Amino acid sequence: MMKSSIDKKDSAAVLHHAGWDHLKPPKPDAAKFAVTGHESQVVTLQIGVGEACQGEAGTMMYLSPGMRQSVTYEGCCQRCCSGESCFVVNFTNSGSTGNHEFVALTPNFPTAKVVPVDLSSPDVGGKLVAQQGAYMASYGDVRVGISLDTNCMRCCCAGLGLVRQKLEGSGTVFLGGTGTIVQKVLADGETILVDTNCIMAFASTCKLDLKRAGGILGMVGGGEGIFNTTLTGPGLVVVQSMNETVFREALATQKIYRR
Prior knowledge:
Shape: globular
Radius of gyration: 20 Å
CATH architecture: 4-Layer Sandwich
Helix content: 10-25%
Oligomer: single chain
Number of domains: 1
Structural class: alpha+beta
Strand order of the largest sheet: 1-15-20-17-10-13-12
Number of helices: 5
CATH topology: Double-stranded beta-helix
Order of helices and strands: HEEEEEEHEEEEEEHEEEEEEHEEH
Distance between the termini: 45 Å
């Protein structure tokens, strides 16, 4: 009798052989944070005395008693152009108890997932390019800026637009994304083809380009539009099965149909 579904171990092997992997949590002995939940996820950070982390406005879920919350105004133009608020919320362990304190943050968008990326990883190299509004929180040295794609074809058709988000530093950044999220580390010269709506982030060492989605029939009736996006390594690539814009459009369509 045939199995009605693929065994979880076998499905993980298929994903591994394809070169993709689920986002990996930190090692337990070096854990600074924990991500919990399947949808509308929560990241809980352990903050030492005098340490701090940053978050997007509106992401705070709870703070332990020794945490102090403050708001700063920095990099307004670049942050706004990259899809963020010009305000940064800082969460600092005031040291009043002398113990580690905790802060829990959650993305502003419902059903969103928390995607941790270590910018100091050799697969990232200290610079990550992401879709607009992807940044949610960070700790350590993380700077939010912009990356401009001045190629007319790419900025119109590659899925990330003219102004992309650039995250630099040696700390850990938490991105907010929707759908199922997987990662792949591309070898030098390795190329993958990705739907234009599915790119979430990639190391700045990767090259982004376009490829025509087949012939005339493929472009008209294939469901992928005129172009797909290519990413060429080396470096980390993070993709999502459905981005926030597509999700909103799907909800709006359902609302219209119900009327």
